[in-house]
Amino acid sequence: MDGRINIRELIMKSAGGALHRRADRIVSVFLLLAASISIITSIGIVLTLVTDAAHFFSEVSLRDFFGKNLAPLGSNPSFGVLPLIVGTLASSLLAMIVAVPVGLTAAIYMSEFAPAGLRNTLKPMMEVLAGIPTIVYGFFAYSFVTPMLMKMLPGLEAKNVLSAGLVMGVMIIPMVASLSEDAMNAVPTALREGALALGSTKLEVTLKVVVPAAISGIIASFILGISRAVGETMIVVIASGSSKKLTFDIMQSMQTMTSYIVEFTGGDAGSGTTGYYSLYAVGLLLFIFTLIMNLIAQYISKKYREAY
What we know:
By secondary structure, the protein is mainly α. The chain is built from 13 helices and 2 strands, in the order αααββαααααααααα. A two-stranded antiparallel ribbon has the order 1-2. Strand 1 and strand 2 form a beta hairpin. It is globular, with a radius of gyration of 26 Å. The two termini are about 45 Å apart.
């Protein structure tokens, strides 16, 4: 012994040492279980989707599944998912056409141009949009946006993907703006000051220094916004309709993958039928879509992340 005292050993050798060790083990097990909940839940979701989708694909081939004819309740049922994919992509792209420029512009203003007091007011107000229930957005699209668009576009149907996509874009603006603004705020002030010292204007510093430096976080916000749009349900259920025909006309009704699932979970397909299992096949496809989007966002964030 060199005469040094190990405080931890003294505590553990004391009368309460065993109790402390037992408490440490209990806390460790509890934290492990808490951390495992999300993993176990994800595994359960994937197993459920894959297992029930396998029943569907045992009766319907992949070629028929990716066909263009969708009539699950017809006398001769067909389960072509292409109309659902087109409807989903059309509404999502329309949403991003709205959300990307508006959200990025708002993020640039709040990060680089707005006074601190105004920024602290604007950002919470914008994020209030994210807390509005999506069913409210759906009724807003159907009862306000669609009638307004019908006055400007006479050929617009009462239920259409155009108004649904536009309102979805408004809903996604807070996500794009908040994540992009956080990415720009992470850019060191020294870069801004260096560019200003070289004679650059505030706008030049923003567009040529700050935005390129924060590009990984900005692009990740765009991709996460697309993922959010792909998985949106209530807006497209209410405003876009349930037409199962394949069309590329955004002024007409289209059905998305999420609205198809909602429609059939209402009891249209009996349990154990091919139509019932088609819900899980479409759900699996939707899961793959969103998983790919999230993986792309993570890849871009890691590949183009700037370390300061």
